[in-house]
Every structure is written in structure tokens, then in C-alpha cells.
């Protein structure tokens, strides 16, 4: 899908977070976003998914102006087309691993156990479907979140430091799964990361600053 962010500005109370952020992501493109801690990367990603509000500017997904949609329409658009890997995972504690990963498919009315298992395999969690989240390591939890974000083959994947808690070997495995799955389905990928290994695979790397975003 196409993602267009135009002159986006956001503040919390009196504190500005970022201003004048504009970027375009083409269908199938992989854009990495880097920037100092606290500069607003997670906030920007949330805005791209319509999960947070902004003060001025606009976000368009496939031409739809997120700011003009109702909450319900935004939720539907997200359900159909967007995958999100949260920095804090947001894995549901009372569901087992397979049920967590299956959630987007259930919401779409298209359950598919085989696809869930294949997704778990691709992030190195094959056979762990019946574990509860509390029985997993931080890195394994992160991979559950990644499998869940990819399972319904979204046309836009927004991933917030998805390799942040992983050792280099597992990080490489997860990056390969992310890039392979998005390329396979022609999905666009916006990845927030501090990892040099991850940015190397991107088509473009952008740096977020308080006053905008620019090519690194
Ligand atoms: N709900 C909130 N209320 C007030 N301020 C907030 C809120 N959420 C985030 N902030 C502030 O907004 C700024 C941007 O936060 P954000 O989480 O987007 O940064 P980040 O670039 O993702 O940082 P990191 O690399 O550490 O994850 C920070 O200064 C943070 O303290
Ligand atoms: Mg963040």
C-alpha cells in the first residue's frame, strides 16, 4: 500500500514531540526510521496506524485520509491492511501463543491453523503454540508479536524495534522473516530500529528529529 505522511506535527500538552514530518512509502518499499530515544519514533508509528492523534498535518493510507475517517472505519482499515509490532509486545497473557498469533485471522473471520503454525515456524517458534506467554523469554515474546503482525498478510507492516530484545542470531532470523514475508506479499514495511544490521536491509533510511524527518 502507499503511505503518505504530510507535515505531521504532534505535542503532548506543552511539550512538542515532532513537527513537519513528511514521508512517502511506496507499495513494497522497506523504509527504516532511526533517531534518538524520545524523539517520537513510536509516536509517529502509532500515528501512521491511526492509533494516536496528531495536531496538524495528515496521514493517508492507500489514499484514505486517516484523520477524516471515523474510529470504526480506522479500525476496519487497520484490521484489513495493517500489521503492527508494538515496542512493548502487547501479547495477551491469557491466550496461548497460537491463539495470540491467530487473533488477526479470527477478527477477519478466516481462521487458519496451518498458517498460524507456518508463521510460528518462520520466526523460530515451531512447536511452542500451546505455551502461555508467561512461559516464554522476552525474545520469544517479541517473535510472537511479529508472527501475529504478519499472519493476516497485511499490505503495510509497522514494526517498532522488533529486534530490540533479541541476540544477534535470533535478530537476523526475525529480520529475515519480516523482510521475506513482506516481500512475498508485496507489503510495505516501516521499521523503527537502532540496529545497523536491520537498517542495512532497508531500501531507505530516514532519521527523525524534532523538526522533521530526512534521509540519513
Ligand atoms: N502519553 C504520553 N504523554 C506525555 N508524553 C508522552 C506520552 N507518550 C510519549 N511521550 C513523550 O513523547 C516523546 C516521544 O516518545 P516516543 O515513545 O515516541 O519516543 P521514541 O522515539 O519511540 O523513543 P525510544 O527510542 O526510547 O523508544 C518522549 O519524550 C516521551 O516522553
Ligand atoms: Mg519507541
From TrEMBL:
Domain of life: Bacteria
Record-annotated ABC transporter domain positions: 3-216
Molecular function terms, GO-annotated: ATP binding; ATP hydrolysis activity; transmembrane transporter activity
Keyword terms of this UniProt record: ATP-binding, Cell membrane, Membrane, Nucleotide-binding, Transport
SUPFAM superfamilies found in the cross-reference section: P-loop containing nucleoside triphosphate hydrolases
Keyword Cell inner membrane: no
One GO cellular component term noted in the UniProt record for this chain: plasma membrane
Pfam families, A to Z: ABC_tran
Protein name: ABC transporter ATP-binding protein
Species of origin: Rhodoferax saidenbachensis
